[in-house]
Design a protein that fits this description.
This protein is α/β, with parallel strands linked by helices. The protein has 24 helices and 22 strands. The longest helix has 29 residues. The two termini are 33 Å apart. It comes from Phytoactinopolyspora halophila.
Length: 780
């Protein structure tokens, strides 16, 4: 496989699931970078703070859908002028499987102090985080406090870590947040606040809560973010309070309904910046808050304690001109120090000018190679715009045609000898259709022999395949053993091979099976799977090989009939015996038959008794094993199961349910569809993706870390076999479901575009919407 390298101007790394200020800051900076022309990549690093599966924050999903940033997926190496990370906890336990980073500068925007009075243990270890970033990025990070209180908390680390001499303050789109305020919003002062509903965001005493947010009908109090925390302290929520759930309305719309933004919180909380205060200032609300905000916001706010709130509110509500001046001062401060232009200037200071042109507004669409935008295809139209010949095309089946040959490559190493290509070439030269199943990493060795592996994303027409068949011989249909077999034990792999060969024999109905190399155990598994099929079996093996068991040697008397194939030097072909009797299951023993005749009550008593004895023995072993130095391993009658990789979503993604996407057409482009599937899996943290698709998807699936099973696409099946596609599709879906165990199966015959690149119809992406909506089971 070739290495995949992606280049960005700015690579932003954070936990995309955070619901509050962290995400708002990331979104605003991405928007500022997009408008300035900087290309932004987004690397999701799950924080241990959020241990359970949780989807990406809606704001970040929107920014990805609009194409203003690109989620980093399927890349081995990521290059960037700047790695801009947020929230130090994401580096406490970085996940495995991250791409190699090659960045010119590393800045950690520190938006949380390492410790405060709320907790006993620190939230993160500064030196440990610093080492982790250096290990991941290959260079030291410059720590950039986002406000004075964070800078103060890092003071005693000044000699051990680089600290930016100026604060990396949050930014905001002042124009978008601006609210016209020709007068007060009501006939009485309207006090409000918005934040997450966490208890740390509220004062910790009843007196302070009611002082800041009066239970007095002369004031209206509006709360966005929930009131569960104060409700646990107050006897009841005052009748003059209006409670709005978190994110129930846009924060800007909420701020337009209040005059005064009053923000007081738990005394143990150290706010790194106070983003909600900046939003209120940009919207023209007058802010009343604690004094520690003064070094950051200066004269734009009013400061004091909760007991000072009524005085500040009453004074300004009685003085419209004073209120208007204070409101305008907040807007001007936001424009001067916290605007998008400020962020673009500090990015340019670090990495220079952007690689792209400044955005002119609206959304951006990430181009997808090989796809056109703005036009729709009918269900039976190819990407070239010409009608697809499979619609109403006659089948090519011929009842007089010879039975196909099934070629099974059982070599699990990565040698690149031309053996497989020569075997397939000889079989097709006989004019016989050849069904080939190979380990996924060998699919490319078939070269031009395989109709289904012509190169990434290309589709040969029927006329091309017909011409090739006339000059070369029979058609080739390719399937693969999945990459994940390399992660399984030899016993599990053989169990899968037996399962798969049984399905191949039933689907392709070959008259001959050719086993390429493989160990004696693998060959035995394949021959056992063919018992009772009446099939002829050949083994391509090395000329100098260890003696075969008697049951595995050439068929007696057939030495003169051993085929002579033009194989590479050192290889030969030999016939292998296949038992004519199918595998039969032995009947029940005499004891089992006797047990079945016992009364139901006796059988139930016996089962309970035996279960009790087993449990007692297990408890005894658990007591004795540690002292004896014995490790107990739990064994169960587990069904065959292929490993299904999970995207980086949260600390335990391997427990998410599995969704299987079945690709039924070679018209579907692999790269954008797999990217879209991987994006949705990571964004929603709702499922693990698996795919059943044509073999040309192998390399792309490996790049995205998606478990792939393969099947022959309909176009190739019709050419090779003429009919039976529907039965074959049902069989492959059933076989794949038996080894992957999905909770949902969805079918697609059109390309699915990733976020930011979808066309206006959105029809294929509806498949992903269906998978997301069907998250009926979560085990994490």
């Amino acid at each position: 496989m070739t290495s995949r390298t992606t280049r960005f101007d700015v690579l932003m790394a954070t936990d995309c699931r955070f619901p509050g200020g962290n995400t708002s800051s990331v979104v605003e900076e991405i928007e500022a970078q997009h408008r300035a022309g900087y290309r932004t990549g987004l690397l999701h690093l799950p924080s241990p703070v959020l241990g359970k599966p949780r989807p990406f924050a809606p704001k970040l999903r929107t920014i990805l859908d609009e194409g203003k940033a690109e989620l980093v997926l399927g890349a081995d190496r990521v290059e960037a002028g700047l790695l801009l990370a947020r929230h130090p906890t994401v580096f406490s336990e970085p996940p495995r499987g991250l791409p190699q980073l090659d960045v010119d500068h590393v800045v950690l925007a520190v938006n949380q102090v390492a410790s405060d009075d709320r907790g006993v243990m620190p939230y993160y270890d500064v030196r440990h985080v610093h080492r982790q970033i250096e290990r991941m990025a290959g260079k030291e990070a410059t720590w950039a406090p986002i406000g004075p209180r964070v800078r103060e908390s890092l003071g005693h680390h000044a000699g051990t870590i680089p600290i930016l001499p100026w604060d990396w303050e949050n930014v905001i789109d002042v124009t978008n947040w601006r609210v016209d305020r020709p007068c007060f919003v009501a006939d009485r002062p309207v006090i409000g606040r918005h934040s997450r509903g966490h208890w740390s965001k509220w004062p910790n005493t009843k007196a302070d809560i009611l002082a800041a947010y009066p239970a007095d009908p002369r004031y209206r109090v509006r709360i966005l973010g929930g009131t569960q925390a104060p409700a646990e302290i107050l006897d009841r929520i005052p009748p003059n309070w209006v409670d709005l759930p978190f994110n129930s309305i846009p924060a800007r719309d909420f701020l337009a309904t209040i005059d005064f933004f009053v923000y007081f919180h738990h005394p143990g909380l150290i706010e790194a910046f106070g983003r909600v205060v900046l939003e209120a200032l940009a919207a023209g609300a007058v802010v009343v808050g604690p004094r520690y905000l003064e070094p950051l916001f200066g004269d734009a706010c009013l400061y004091g304690t909760p007991q000072d709130v009524r005085r500040h509110v009453d004074e300004l509500y009685a003085d419209w001109e004073g209120f208007a001046a204070r409101s305008q001062a907040g807007v001007e401060l936001a424009q001067k120090r916290f605007s998008y232009e400020t962020h673009a200037e500090r990015i340019a200071t670090l990495i220079g000018e952007p690689s792209g042109a400044p955005a002119t507004g609206g959304t951006s669409r990430i181009p997808v190679p090989g796809t056109g935008r703005g036009s729709r295809r009918t269900p039976w139209q190819s990407r070239s715009g010409r009608p697809d010949k499979r619609a109403g095309a006659p089948r090519s089946g011929d009842p007089e045609q010879q039975q196909p040959t099934l070629v099974v490559d059982l070599r699990w190493d990565t040698t690149d000898a031309p053996l497989l290509d020569r075997v397939v070439e000889h079989v097709t030269a006989e004019g016989v259709t050849c069904a080939v199943v190979v380990p996924a990493w060998r699919a490319s060795q078939l070269g031009e022999q395989a109709a289904t592996v012509p190169g990434r994303g290309s589709v040969r027409s029927r006329m091309e395949r017909k011409a090739r068949r006339e000059t070369r011989g029979g058609e080739v249909a390719v399937e693969t053993f999945p990459w994940v077999l390399a992660e399984m034990s030899a016993g599990e792999r053989r169990q899968y091979v037996a399962h798969r060969i049984s399905g191949l024999l039933a689907a392709h109905r070959p008259g001959r099976m050719v086993l390429v190399d493989g160990s004696a155990q693998d060959v035995r598994v394949a021959l056992d799977a063919a018992r009772g099929s009446g099939i002829e079996a050949l083994r391509v093996q090395r000329e100098i090989a260890p003696p075969m068991p008697a049951t595995m040697g050439p068929v007696a008397g057939d030495e003169a009939n051993v085929p002579q194939w033009p194989l590479p030097d050192g290889w030969t072909v030999a016939r292998q015996p296949v038992s004519a009797s199918p595998t039969t299951r032995s009947g029940p023993s005499a004891m089992a038959r006797l047990r079945r005749k016992a009364p139901a009550r006796v059988r139930m008593w016996a089962r309970r008794r035996m279960s009790g004895l087993r449990q007692a023995r297990l408890r005894l072993l658990e007591r004795l094993a540690p002292a004896s130095g014995v490790l107990l391993l739990e064994a169960s009658k587990a069904e065959l199961s292929l490993p299904v990789r999970a995207p980086i979503t949260h600390p335990t993604p391997d427990r998410l349910p599995i969704a299987l996407l079945v690709v039924t057409s070679t018209d579907v482009d692999a790269e954008p569809t797999l990217r879209a599937l991987a994006e949705r899996a990571q964004i929603t943290a709702g499922f693990r993706p698996a795919v059943l698709a044509p073999p040309e998807w192998v390399d792309e699936a490996v790049g995205f870390g998606i478990t792939l099973e393969t099947m022959v696409a309909r176009q190739q099946w019709d050419t090779a076999h003429g009919d039976g596609w529907s039965q074959y599709l049902r069989r492959r879906v059933t076989e794949t479901s038996q080894v992957i165990h999905p909770t949902m199966v969805a079918f697609v015959d059109r390309t699915i575009d990733p976020a930011g690149a979808a066309d206006d119809t959105g029809e294929p992406s509806a498949v992903l919407d269906l998978i997301e909506a069907a998250r009926t089971r979560r085990r994490a």
